Amino acid sequence: MLKLEKVEIAYGIVPVVQGISFHVEDGELISIVGANGAGKTTIMKAIAGRLHLRKGSINFRGKDITKLSSPDIVRMGITYVPENRRLFTPLSVEENLEIGAYIINDKKEIEKNLEFVYGLFPRLKERRKQRAGTLSGGEQQMLAIGRGLMANPKLLMLDEPSQGLMPILVTELLNAVKKLKELGMTILLVEQNVQEALEIADRGYVLQTGQIITEGNGKELLDSDIVKKAFLGM
Amino acid sequence: MEGIKGAIKDALDFSDFPKSERIGIIIFYIYLLIFPWVVSSSFARAVMIQFLLFALYGMGWNTIGGYGGQVALGKAQYVGISAYTVAMMMILFNIPFWVSMPIGVFLAVLWSFMIGYPLFRLKGHYFAIATIAVSLVLQDIFRNWEFVGGERGLSLPFKGTPNFLYMQFKSDVYYYYFMLIFFTLGLFYMNWFRKSRLGYQLRAVKANEDVAASLGINVRWAKIKAYAIASAFVAVGGAFYAVYHMYIDTSSVMHLELSILIALMAMLGGAASLWGPIIGAAILVPLDRYLGSWIGGAKGLLGLDLIIYSIIIMLVAALEPRGIWGIVEKVRAKRG
Fold it and tell me: How far is it, in rounded angstroms, from Cα A42 to Cα A47?
């Protein structure tokens, strides 16, 4: 579905991502894990069309999207849920969700997506009229994901959804992500929370200073020495 | 057809304001309607005309600067382009105001696309500085361009008799009402704009560009469109300015001070609110004019007006970034 080939990205002259290739297949949940500054967010922004590549190409469902602008990429079915949630805090929960359906003009479809999101996160339905800024951290993250889902994505990219949440909420949230996958959504997940991200993933990539140092299915990676040493302190 | 009907309905619908505020607005508007009969002082009328003109400028600025959050400080260049277009077309070809004004507005909008397209690669302060730079360059070009009067400026020829086509009247009452019509249309337009698709796009852009883009909004195009609308607004005002004063030069229609004043009106009253620019103009224009008549030429010499403007900017930034309307909304929220 999504295929990156030898992608290089630089901020000015500083190379951040140095020739990485990976792919995401239909219905997969892929985790990219790595420390701060490894280039995780940069890759996501590049896929979403917010950054230009220096080299390499990005392919989505057989089409080259390397040079497309963000709005076009959203229309092709890739939704990026940025880190730190970035909600429209003065607006209500429901308004935030409705903005997510910006590219959809059919009222019935918006209604359907809204029901889907409320089904996935019942908590949001309870608080639909509440201002987004007054939600708890976990609820805000649910809302950010829900907003992303409103655009009917074929690929959902989640950038550190667990950031700043307490452990019990992290588990709850990642369970919701897993459920989404079971419902057939293709998901690209970027996480610092290595253990849990790899547990729910079909496959994972480990990123270090802009390069993929190892890859494999989630369980394999968790057992591998390189992950144990670098991230889990074992 | 549906779309147009809906737009007109939105433009005329003020029902999201509390009743007390709506009554206040109606009373204020009635006062505007009967003002020339209540007050006969020509000085006061001139102040009122300028108030309406600046409110119109401020409304325009509010699209890009308020809702879009892009601090544009070069609006005077669009005032200038259309004022000069109207003046030159009348001097050279004797073309009436109602023909030259749309052309002036068109040229201003065209220029805004040419400027907006490259400038919106910049963000935040850099964008603000770039808008200043462009308008300064344009002012210098006009000042040194003999064809458009250069340093001397342009005087519009008198038609002798009052003439609707050329907007030349004996009494300033006529100018007052024409300005009031522009003001009213502008107000309705803005009332529609704030509920329009572009209005919401801009607010999303202002809140967070990255999120707006990842929702599918074409950020740069939204900004360029809003910038063009803002330019059209001030261009209408500029065309009116030319026929009203019958004399223009670069320091009256293209000066940086005008650009700053336009932005300041909206910021003081409350950026990104419907009434903000009107409130701002209602405070700053009389202040400016009465200050001018009180201390005379010393105003410019001392730079007293500039001192006052900068104090206002600092106060707004420090105390209530959403301006006077922000205070109103806070009070409204407290009451329940």
Answer: 9
Q: In what order do the strands lie in the sheet with A55-60?
A: A14-24, A2-11, A55-60, A63-64
Using only the alpha carbons of chain B, give its radius of gyration.
20
Calculate ∠ Cα A183-A187-A192, nearest 5°: 130
Span B18-30, average pLDDT: 91
On average, the pLDDT of chain A sits at: 89
Nearest CA in chain A to B197: A102
B179 class by beta-carbon count within 10 Å (0-12 exposed, 13-18 middle, 19+ buried):
buried
pTM across the whole model: 0.83
Q: Is A79 on the interface with B (CB under 8 A)?
A: yes
> Is B93 or B317 the better-scoring residue by pLDDT?
B93
- The pLDDT tens digits of the residues spanning A158-180 come to 999 888 888 888 888 888 899 99
CA A173 to each of CA A130, A165, A176, A196: distance values in angstroms, whole numbers, following the listed order:
20, 9, 5, 11
- Average pLDDT estimate for A28-35: 90
Pairwise CB contact (< 8 Å): A103 & B200: no
Question: CA A76, CA A152: separation in Å to the nearest integer?
Answer: 10
Q: What is the 3-state secondary structure of A87-121?
A: CCCCCEHHHHHHHHCCCCCCHHHHHHHHHHHHHHC
Spatial contact of B43 and B293, defined as CB atoms under 8 Å apart:
yes
Taking contacts as CB-CB distances below 8 angstroms, the residues of chain B near A103 are 215-216
On whether any CB of chain B is under 8 Å from the CB of A156, the answer is no
Question: Alpha helices, DSSP H only, in chain A?
Answer: 40-47, 70-76, 93-100, 107-120, 122-126, 137-149, 167-182, 194-200, 218-223, 225-227
Residues 6 or more apart whose CB falls under 8 angstroms from that of B114 comprise none
Number of H helices, E strands in chain B: 16, 2
Residue pairs spanning A and B at CB distance below 8 A: 49
Spatial neighbors of A144 by CB under 8 A, at least 6 apart, are A81, A82, A85, A86, A87, A161
Q: Name the 3-class secondary structure at B136.
A: helix
Please check whether residue B32 is in contact with residue B51, taking contact to mean a CB–CB distance below 8 angstroms: no
Q: Using CB atoms, which residue from B203, B215, B219 is nearest to A102? A: B215
Check: complex ipTM more than 0.85: no
What single-letter amino acid sits at B307?
Answer: I
